[in-house]
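Friendly challenge for the regulars: who can give me the structure tokens for this chain first? No prize, just bragging rights.
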Amino acid sequence: MPGLRWKIYGFDDEASMATGIYLFDDEEVMRAHMENLRKMEKAVDHASDLEMQVWDVQDDLSKITKGPI
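First reply, four minutes later:
Bragging rights claimed.
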């Protein structure tokens, strides 16, 4: 997807719960992707109870750990 730099996937087998941490180029791309995820949740059986949070990137700390920012 244009504007998505990377995504980290996670899955909890015991809880049967998936997660993802995304990094986008800008807020507009992020909001569009969030809208697409909401539409997908309604259209498929395997995605439900979708929760989303928006967090700011801490540039200085991320650069120390070589985060792709």
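DSSP finds two helices and two strands in the chain. The CA atoms of residues 58 and 64 lie 10 Å apart. Your move, everyone else.
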